[in-house]
């Protein structure tokens, strides 16, 4: 694209560095900001800068938090013997929305992915192992996405925990509630048959 | 969404004010910035602020420009008697890309749209009429999108020009080059038949 203004070109370029935002979308967004009052651009820029510069992570679970110990970790009603291992804050928000979980979390900050240059040392795995060694944690629930990267990460952590007195589990995979069997993919349907649960147990979940 | 951090919540909120960016996308973009080096967020914020605060518009055609008279208006090889009326800079860029146009532009900054609260006084229509009154412009080409708002705007400008010695035209609407007739919508196909051009004339265009 051939811009008539270096300022515009630069803003569009920086905007298009965001994932899923192409040059055309970036131009549309930037032109939108130009039509709005200047305060909107100022608020956006300041919000991004503040977040990036002043961001803190909970010292226990590594979730994004404005205080040293996040609300969940600081809550005395939470079950400290149960830790759910997730990739990032979005997973924490999703699980919290279900109101079904009363344990704590451990936010890894990603998955092991040689393709993207993410190794175990880039994640908070060492901190998770340390925490488990202290003995308070009785069960780790792996809740990473079931991709090759997710499975690799689960297995890596599992091996690190060898010899420690902690049980591990992964969240159940199966047909979503309300979904038709005929439209489910074979892997999911196959797993949901292999991992079937006693009918009486399934009644309790409702 | 229930965020664990006010800083994060604020950044996501401001990001989701952009058109087409929902809360979920905004969260994804903001989390991406958190994973990148801080300089990327700084560059983005600064580029947006610079653009918004230092933006200038060409005093002749009102296109976005870093100098008082934009490159196109300042080019002595351009035909100053021909002015193409467009909505915004994206249209200028699209027409310039064709390398088929050697006249000048006039950027309205939008279309008349009572629904969105955009009246004639919000656009650069008065400046276009003034420019035309000076007599240098011989032809105005309306190149707004053929929506109700575009047609209204064309007609409003047309009325303002009453009594002035200037001819007006609109860009041709028809079947796109390479498109199959059977897939064209009826309005476009109908118009392309009504506005057919002599076959010999069509040879010159290639």
Automatic annotation (TrEMBL), chains A, B:
Report keywords, A-Z. Answer: DNA damage, DNA recombination, DNA repair, Metal-binding, Zinc, Zinc-finger
Q: Which GO terms describe its biological process?
A: DNA recombination; DNA repair
Q: Which SUPFAM superfamilies match?
A: Recombination protein RecR
Q: Zinc fingers (C4-type): which spans?
A: 58-73
CDD domains from the xrefs?
A: TOPRIM_recR (cd01025)
- Toprim domain location is 81-176
Entry-linked Pfam families: RecR_C (PF21175), RecR_HhH (PF21176), RecR_ZnF (PF02132), Toprim_4 (PF13662)
**Care to name a GO molecular-function term for this sequence?**
DNA binding
Under PROSITE patterns, the record lists:
RECR, TOPRIM
Q: Which family, according to UniProt?
A: Belongs to the RecR family.
* HAMAP family in the cross-refs: RecR (MF_00017)
Q: What does this protein do?
A: May play a role in DNA repair. It seems to be involved in an RecBC-independent recombinational process of DNA repair. It may act with RecF and RecO.
Provide the protein name: Recombination protein RecR
According to its UniProt entry, this protein's organism is: Zobellia galactanivorans (strain DSM 12802 / CCUG 47099 / CIP 106680 / NCIMB 13871 / Dsij)
């Amino acid at each position: 694209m051939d811009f008539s203004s270096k300022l515009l070109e630069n803003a569009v370029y920086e905007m298009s560095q965001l994932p899923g935002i192409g040059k055309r979308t970036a131009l549309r967004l930037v032109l939108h900001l130009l039509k709005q009052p200047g305060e909107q651009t100022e608020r956006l820029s300041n919000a991004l800068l503040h977040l990036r510069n002043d961001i803190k992570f909970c010292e226990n679970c590594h979730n994004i938090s404005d205080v040293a110990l996040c609300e969940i970790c600081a809550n005395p009603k939470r079950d400290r013997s149960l830790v759910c291992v997730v990739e990032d804050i979005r997973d924490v928000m999703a699980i919290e929305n279900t109101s079904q979980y009363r344990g704590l979390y451990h936010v890894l900050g990603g998955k092991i992915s040689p393709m993207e240059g993410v190794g175990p040392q880039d994640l908070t795995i060492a901190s998770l192992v340390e925490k488990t060694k202290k003995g308070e944690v009785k069960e780790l629930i792996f809740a990473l996405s079931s991709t090759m990267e997710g499975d690799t990460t689960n297995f890596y952590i599992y091996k690190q925990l060898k010899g420690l007195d902690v049980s591990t589990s992964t969240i159940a995979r199966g047909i979503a509630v309300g979904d038709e069997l005929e439209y489910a993919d074979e892997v999911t349907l196959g797993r949901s048959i292999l991992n079937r649960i006693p009918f009486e147990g399934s009644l309790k979940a409702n």
